[in-house]
């Protein structure tokens, strides 16, 4: 019984954690980075103002984004404008 309660608690904790996609990244400042992800087998690169903005976007899209390079991307993917 304790195991079931523990599993339910951890599931609720993960759910609450995954739905917190409302961070305010505007106060962090500008520190451009090029982030990337793979969507439908295609690499997508987008420029973000700071790491917070990239993590916020990843949370909202429920995707895994990683820093590719410091500074702006050489070329942003078409999907970045959506």
UniProtKB/TrEMBL annotation:
Gene3D superfamilies per the UniProt record, alphabetical: 3.30.60.30
Keyword Nucleotide-binding annotated: no
Entry keyword set: Signal
InterPro entries assigned: Kazal_dom, Kazal_dom_sf
Domain Kazal-like as annotated: residue spans: 15-75
Signal peptide segment: 1-18
This protein's name: Kazal-like domain-containing protein
Organism: Drosophila melanogaster (Fruit fly)
